[in-house]
Amino acid sequence: MPLHTPVVFIFFRRPETTAKVFQAIRRARPRRLILVADGPRGHEDEDLCRQSRKVVDHIDWECEVTRSYSDTNLGVAKRVSTGITEAFKLVEEAIILEDDTLPSPFFFKFCENLLEQWRKDERVFHISGTNFIHDLCKDQQHTYYFNRHPAIWGWATWRRAWQHYDMQLHDWPRHKKDGLLQKNLHLHNAISEWEKTFDLHHENNDPWTWDYHWVYAAWSQGGRSISPHRNLVTNIGFGKGATHTGDGIAPNLPINQDFDEEIVHHPDSSLQEDLNLLLEKRLFQKHPNKLQRGLMKLRKLFHS
Question: Distance between terminal CA atoms of the chain?
Fold first, then answer.
């Protein structure tokens, strides 16, 4: 059965991972596909960018395709954010994948179902296919849980939520004074790291990534995120050629390509505070994650 929800596929210069993710999209057969690609950073990227675009040249199923390809290199922050913004000028809701986020087949069903289920609840901002605490989500009654931490390795959202995205974080000083972080986080080190991150990105015309701003949009609007109890997306982009995960260690996020189940919904979008706290601890009490590595790199840059 074809997928009726539009898919936004964002890629750059990794033809091998692009091909793997595109095959997963091809199996889902979306009726609407929006392709977003950045331009090469220099001559060394030109062939890889060309190969990556060639992967998605041939669409062999019934599908309306839009291609948003940049001739110049905008950088990951501007290319991803502007690509998503352009997509939401065309569609009301979408599933979003990057060239390193490999989904299971059930991921598409999961996103499409939940986009419909929570379409009119403006507290729900984000549907993720990733669950960083999948090993702790045993014997749960429902298929997913509500939390405050939008994971962007395979996700979905609505235009109504993305309209709050602000690359400049204009209202951060007011929200900082009003205790935005204390309202959304439990751990002192999490509050400290996010405060430094938002301070660095406030009215910053050269951000190094785009997703912290999405977290800010959700928190500033009281938004909730959904994560599945079973992990549905794995990141295949760690290592050589990666922009932000080149020196990272891939977390243990297995996916079952054959998994399928009837989706059991919650009666409302109340937060599951016990799982939300477990997720926050997993993100901030173990090895340095992307947020912490990014901060360390920036500190070195600013003090060099």
Answer: 55
In this structure, are residues 234 and 98 in contact, taking their beta carbons and an 8 Å threshold? no
Residue-level length of the chain: 304
Q: Which of 76, 92, 74 is nearest to 34 (CA)?
A: 92
Question: Does the global pTM surpass 0.85?
Answer: yes
Q: How far is CA 43 from CA 37, 49, 50, 66, 287, in A?
A: 16, 10, 11, 26, 35
DSSP bridge partners of 75: none
Question: Is the CB of residue 148 less than 8 Å from the CB of residue 245?
Answer: no
What is the residue extent of each domain of the chain?
Answer: 107-150+161-233+264-304
| Secondary structure (3-state) at 34 | strand
For residue 253, give the H/E element and its range. none
Residue-level pLDDT, tens digit, the chain, 304 residues? 789 999 999 999 999 999 999 999 999 999 999 999 999 999 999 999 999 999 999 999 999 999 999 999 999 999 999 999 999 999 999 999 999 999 999 999 999 999 999 999 999 999 999 999 998 987 689 999 999 999 999 999 999 999 999 999 999 999 999 999 999 999 999 999 999 999 999 999 999 999 999 999 999 999 999 999 999 999 998 755 545 444 445 566 888 888 999 999 999 999 999 999 999 999 887 544 455 555 444 433 333 3
Q: Which helix (H) or strand (E) holds 235?
A: strand 233-235
Determine the longest span between alpha carbons in the chain, in angstroms.
Answer: 55
